Amino acid sequence: MTEEFKQPTRVLHFLAVDVLQRYDWHGSPIELGELFIVEKNRREAVCKLRSHQFAWELRLFIGSQDDIVQPQVCRTQDEVLTTGEQWNASLIEKGWHA
């Protein structure tokens, strides 16, 4: 396994991402980074990106890192970015902040 698979990167500003790399599927997902992190009342919401056999998967965690609030499989880079932006905007509307 190469270093690029072992260390996830933080992707906090998704407009700065030019191209998401589609990793080959080897039977289990690879953590690829985080699209955003917001906070509210000392709780943290994190949108994580990982590989998926059909493309990528976004997972929204709130509070405990074991609690997946919202998963979404995205087949295109545009879908990843759009979904992340929508989730972030929805949380900001509800009083969460960066």
Question: Main traits of this protein?
Answer:
disordered N terminus, alpha+beta, single chain, 21% helix, 2 helices, five-stranded mixed sheet, 98 residues, globular
Give a written overview of the molecule.
The protein is 21% helix and 38% strand. The chain has one domain. It has a five-stranded mixed β-sheet, covered by helices on one side. The protein has 98 residues and is of the alpha+beta class. The longest helix has 17 residues, at 77-93.
Concise overview:
The chain is of the alpha+beta class. The chain has helices spanning 3-6, 77-93; strands spanning 9-10, 31-40, 43-52, 55-62, 68-74.
Count of separate DSSP helical elements: 2
Radius of gyration: 13 Å
Distance between the termini: 34 Å
Number of strands: 5
Note poorly predicted spans. Answer: 1-17
How is the biggest beta sheet arranged?
5 strands, mixed
Helix content: 10-25%
| Whole-number total of structural domains | 1
Strand proportion, as a percent range, falls in: 35-45%
Strand order of the largest sheet: 1-2-3-4-5
The helix/strand series, from N terminus to C terminus, equals HEEEEEH
Basic shape: globular
Helix and strand composition category:
alpha+beta
Indicate the topology.
Blueprint lengths: L2 H4 L2 E2 L20 E10 L2 E10 L2 E8 L5 E7 L2 H17 L5
Parallel strand pairs: 1-2
Antiparallel strand pairs: 2-3, 3-4, 4-5
